[in-house]
Amino acid sequence: MASSKAHHATGFAAGVIAAAVVARIGGGSHGGAFYVGVLMSFVAGVGGSTAPDWLEVAWWSGSRRLWIAHRTLTHWGIGWIALLAVSYRELGHSVYAAPAFGFGCGGLMHLLADWPNPLGVPWIARRHSLNLWNSGHCDLIVVAASWAAAWFVGRHMGLPDIHGLDLLQQLRL
Fold it and tell me: Where are the domains of the chain?
């Protein structure tokens, strides 16, 4: 499991990815609804990045105990991928699709951040782990990979005028 800070940092990258896709495909119909859809996909992406963990908490009980074992149903890859696929298909047709897409993007990013841990995540039927490092270690690698993915998607999908090298050249004196 990545640390809480790593999940938040990767969540912002997931929000950027979701917003770029929604901006390209269409977040609402036209006009102001488009911008609301892009913003909502970003916010939901950030929120979805911690969702697999907070969805396990029995909020109705008053205590912080879990209602389901950690890394079971809420960490199931098929569910998050299905949410992404269904909401992607509805982008531009439903006002709920953009935030649902962002939430799914954030949830999937959470699973990708947890995957290198020995505990792994249940992608299809059982848990699978990359067994690369223990919890909380190498968070910088996970965060850097998520932001590299955000740059790639933003550059090639939704934000074509963003160039990393151009920005560096602009900052030169």
Answer: 4-171
